[in-house]
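Researcher: Structure prediction, please.
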Amino acid sequence: MDINNLAPGIYKLKKSGDSTFRLLRVVDKGKAQKYYFGASVKGLHPSKVSNLGDFEVSEKYSGKPAVSDCKVTLSFKDGSGSTFDIPVETVAEVPKIFVALPWLKKFYSK
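Model: Predicted structure follows.
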């Protein structure tokens, strides 16, 4: 499957040397075609995705992917490089995290 010219749909991608899968949504065809990685709302034409050759298509979903064991985690690193993971239990909890930790908000308000 030519990753530079995919038909509209939802795809499961794997990056070379990585064990994590990535989600790709493909919209339109030709010059209007846009690739949306993960939950991105900024689509790019395949010719504008610099690292597209690093990915291979593992699967094209025939419809919406069946989802189980969904987890949302807010991750960040402090000044010394230590990683912190904050599990998010509900969507309503997200704004509360930024109230409790206002210094994180600047990174998510771009």
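Model: The first strand starts at residue 9 and ends at 15.
Researcher: Thanks, that helps.
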